[in-house]
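Today's session is about reading a structure prediction critically. Students often jump straight to the picture, but the first step is always the sequence itself: look for stretches that repeat, for charged clusters, for runs of hydrophobic residues. Only then move on to the predicted structure, which in these notes is written as discrete structure tokens rather than atom positions. Here is the chain we will use throughout the hour.
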Amino acid sequence: MKNLVPVNAKIIEILRKEISNEIFSILDEKYKFEPRGNFQNTAIYIAKPINTLQVSKIMINANAIGFGVVPYSGGSGLVCGQISLKGQPLLLSLERLDKIREFSPVSGVVKVEAGVVLSDLKKVSKAHNRQFPLSLASQGSCMIGGNLATNAGGVNVLKYGNARDLCYGLEVVMPDGKILNDLNDLKKDNSGYDIKNLIIGSEGTLGVITAASLKTFPLTNNVVALMSVNTTREAVKLYSFLSSKLEFSLHAFELINITGIKFLITTGLIKTFPISTSKNWWLLVEVGGAEQGDLIESFQKLLSQASALKMIDEIIISQNSKQYNDIWKIRELIPEANRLVGSVSNHDISLPLNRISAFIERAGAEILDISEELRINCFGHMGDGNLHYNIFPPAGKSKDEYKFYQREIQERVNNLVHEFKGSISAEHGIGRLKREELYKYSDPIKLDLMKSIKDLFDPNGILNPGSIFL
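Below is the predicted structure for this chain, in token form.
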């Protein structure tokens, strides 16, 4: 991390004269903490530009004066990629770049600015009889710029892919203030290096995304089933069975642990459930297609076959929109329940599907070896191999009382992920919290290439300093 000038009152005065007086202010409470409340932002000033040109002027000055700039979208990131933990950079909020620039009814491509809230984009798409399928628990606050900067995942990756797979083109302000205009809507473009996909997922370290061309899709009729299984091995078997039969109709395959259900009950977020809470593992499976009637019938037949093969215990299938929403609410509220309970350690990991069951068994033994008091809530997007493996204190105890276990928990879980050929960051990114793990577990050649790319794009190291790189 290079030595940068702290953003002080004198620098803000320069920016106010050159750009606009109204867009700079002292950081207020909304931007001081990340979502879990564990880390405080060290930035003092924030800029809220209203257009790409103002973003460009800020970056020109940053590059000339030598102060750091931390891009900020909805602030929902969980690895502190959006807040500074060292120094006093300028926080650059994209929230006022919130326009839908264009919606093409022919191609279904929508061009939006970085500050558009994900749930608003989903509403706009639906108004055009289309859908934007990226679906996250934070979709009421997260913004498109941040979604792309982190290559966000969510519950529909199985069918539609990550944020990267939903993007045709970008408008990006580079660290020196130059504006990359690549806001196309081409399905095919082999004209040299794919700069767009280099910037997507770079967590604001290579450029500031200001707008994007995004794919929307035809609306589908979706059905969701909630079921209990005896073991995660049965869950993997069921996934293999359903994916081989349903092909492109399988939208989501979510794993839920009974610990998560108990958290929903104890926090009061949900008190009653449509199936018994006696089993350790539940699955939420969604399928979608053009014709709902045929879809439900074929889905029911497949689940009946799976039940006859002893893969499933209890099953309920949504029959209307209320049941559909109520079932999804169970899965979507688990992160909020986790936050209210308070975790000792959180892990966003991905594993090869055929190794998930063995990992869960081994990891459980590792955690209990540390302390039999600890509780494990393992849940997530099992169909694409992404698990959220979170550790909690015993009931009635606070996370702070057990924080001394955190380092050992993280080391054991991450070592096991590495042994199983998985990733220590599936969808949350690296940010400032996982830099040491990135350097410990990644291929050194990959790290060298990443550093070379960073130095080429941002030789003065002004953009999101301290994120990803040590």
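Discussion point for the tutorial: The domain at 342-428 is CATH 3.30.70.2740 (Alpha-Beta Plaits).
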